Amino acid sequence: MINFAHRGASGDYPENTLLAFKEGIKAGANGLELDVHKTKDGKLVVIHDEDVERTFQARGLVKDLTLDELRALTCRKQLFKDSKECRVPTLEEVLELVKKHPVTLNIELKTDVIPYNRIEEDVIRLIKAYQVQDQILISSFNPKSIKRCKEIAPYIKTGFLYHKPIDQVIQYAKSLQADAIHPDLKLVSEALIKEAHENQLEVNIYTVNSPIYMRKLIAAGADGIFTDYPALLNEIMEEE
Ligand code: G3P
Ligand code: CA
Predict the structure, then answer these.
(1) Ligand 1 pocket, residue 15 CB under 6 Å
(2) N or C: which end of the chain has fewer CB within 10 A?
(3) CA neighbor of 32 nearest in space, from 224, 218, 237, 201
(4) What is the distance between the alpha carbons of residues 63 and 55, in angstroms, rounded to a whole number?
(5) Domain spans of the chain, in order of start
(6) Distance 48 CA to ligand 2 centre (A)
(7) pLDDT tens, residue by residue, 154-196
(8) Kind plus residue range of the DSSP H or E element containing 44
(9) 238 Cα distance to chain centroid
(10) What atom in ligand 1 is closest to the CA of residue 110?
């Protein structure tokens, strides 16, 4: 099973930063999850919200800021505000890290929030440049992005994200040619996991921080769990 450090080890470190990704790997995660947006000057950056305000000491939309402007921002968490590893990372920096470790990287395209022009092409170009195709799983809440990625690079795995019930979700994911479904924890059942597997779809569930649900999902045959606490999930995975 893949233990995805959700936005890195974001329960203890500033989310979506190089520090959080490195700490996720140290904690034993065999997967990392991150969110991608595009800057004003067309660079791919790793940040969850379209607005910098929640995580950095500044205001503004990622799409209206240049990479240099974003890199100058200070992290909101006081304890980490002086750390160079707590600035907005570029996707390239994370790919460089991932290339050195045997981990799966889930790249979430935030195109449900802002329909960034040709972001699928840009992300796949970088994945190919770093030759990390086999380590990547691209996901999105936007079905058009899943379809587009499969058109450009059918050999890169994709996962369809959803947070509310969808009729016939397995058939729908298959129609997108997705390799996995990524449901919110509240939408998962053992029957869904079984049906997905019968249809050659993997099931990766978000965001699971409770040991009770971690154990239930492992027993139900989950293929991956996204957690803010990868060390905790790692301990539970190591239980008999
Ligand atoms: O990919 C799982 C999860 O990250 C989706 O929700 O809001 O944390 O990006 P969110
Ligand atoms: Ca995400």
Answers:
(1) no
(2) C
(3) 224
(4) 16
(5) 2-237
(6) 7
(7) 999 999 999 999 999 999 999 999 999 999 999 999 999 999 9
(8) strand 44-46
(9) 23
(10) 9
Give 136's strand partners. 105
238, 230 Cβ separation under 8 angstroms: no
- Smallest CA-to-CA distance from 191 within 232, 215, 220 is with 220
Q: Is the CB of 204 under 6 A from ligand 1?
A: no
Sign of CA dihedral 185, 187, 189, 193: negative
Catalytic, 197? Answer no
Indicate whether residue 182 lines ligand 1 (CB < 6 A): yes
Q: Cβ(15)–Cβ(28) under 8 Å?
A: no
CA of 140 to the centre of ligand 2 (A): 8
pTM: 0.98
Determine the residue of 16, 51, 161 to mutate for testing ligand 1's pocket, defined as the one with the most ligand atoms within 8 A of the Cβ atom.
161
Ligand 1 mutation target, pool 3, 10, 33, most atoms within 8 A of CB: 33
The structure tokens listed for 227 are: 């957690």
- Tell me the pLDDT tens digit for each residue of 63-88: 999 999 999 999 999 999 999 999 99
Superfamily of chain region 2-237: Phosphatidylinositol (PI) phosphodiesterase (3.20.20.190)
Q: pLDDT band at 56, cuts 50/70/90? A: very high
